[in-house]
Structures are given as structure tokens and as C-alpha cells.
Amino acid sequence: ITFVPPMIGGIIWPDGFLPAIGWAGLAASIWSVIVPALLLRASRRKFQASLYRVPGGSTTVPLLLVYGIIVAICHTLYVFNLLPVFK
User: Fold this and answer.
1) Residue 63 to residues 32, 34, 37, 70, 81: CA-CA distances in angstroms?
2) What is the pTM of this model?
3) Measuring CA to CA, how many Å separate 70 from each of 14, 30, 67?
């Protein structure tokens, strides 16, 4: 899902790689940053008294969510031509 669209976009359209890699970045930010952060938050709420806890403390989840949302916003701004674009 993440890497096939940019490859196809680069093969079919000479300038299709950049838009396609943007969509791949959006998918990657959702599936590799936002979803795991939400799963971590849910796990920490459900299993508060667990013996093992991943380092990072209480700031890990908000920082991951902010990063993922910034990536998604940047792609959305790119789609609506509100960011400088390489041409």
C-alpha cells in the first residue's frame, strides 16, 4: 500500500512520482505513526499495572500523534497547492 503507488506513478507518468510519494507518506504516517500511538495509549490505559513499560513516559504518545498529524497536514496542504512545490 505504501510503496506500490509511487512506483506505478513513476512508471506511468514521468512527473507522477512526487504526488504518489506524497500519498504514500500519508498512508505511512497513518499506519506507522498514528495507529501505533493510539494503540500504545489504549494499552497503557488498559494495563496500568504491567511489569514492563516502554521508555518514553507520558510524552511519547502526544509527541507521536503530533508528528503524525503534522505529516498528514503537510500532505493535505500539498494536495491543495498551499505549499511550495518542486517543478
Assistant:
1) 14, 10, 9, 11, 27
2) 0.70
3) 28, 11, 5
Q: Which residues contact 41 (CB under 8 A, 6 or more apart)?
A: 61
Q: What is the pLDDT of residues 18-68, one digit of tens each?
A: 777 778 788 888 899 999 999 988 988 888 877 777 777 788 889 999 999
| Grid coordinates given for 58 | 507520558
Cα gap 16→23, rounded to integer Å = 11
Cβ pair 25, 75 in contact under 8 A: yes
pLDDT at 43: 86
